[in-house]
Specification:
- The termini are far apart.
- It contains four helices and no strands.
- The longest helix has 19 residues.
- By secondary structure, it is an all-alpha fold.
Length: 69
């Protein structure tokens, strides 16, 4: 999955392809049971920024990778 397509990806695809995304989505009050909804729409529903959510996911992935070394 390419970065430029994450906003159009469904919540299900994000959860499947990005480690720790469920936790980030829940922290932004995104209902992850709405799995077929595009991330962009799920974010709009809770007045959140998809860029912010994706940045937090990326940060957590990088931090986990650094801690794993």
């Amino acid at each position: 999955m390419h970065t430029q397509h994450h906003e159009q990806a469904t919540v299900e695809e994000i959860v499947e392809h990005i480690p720790a995304s469920s936790e980030v989505l829940r922290s932004h009050d995104v209902d992850i049971s709405t799995r077929r909804v595009p991330l962009e729409h799920a974010a709009q529903a809770v007045s959140a920024s998809t860029d912010e959510m994706l940045a937090v996911m990326e940060y957590r992935i990088r931090r986990a990778a650094q801690n794993g070394k």
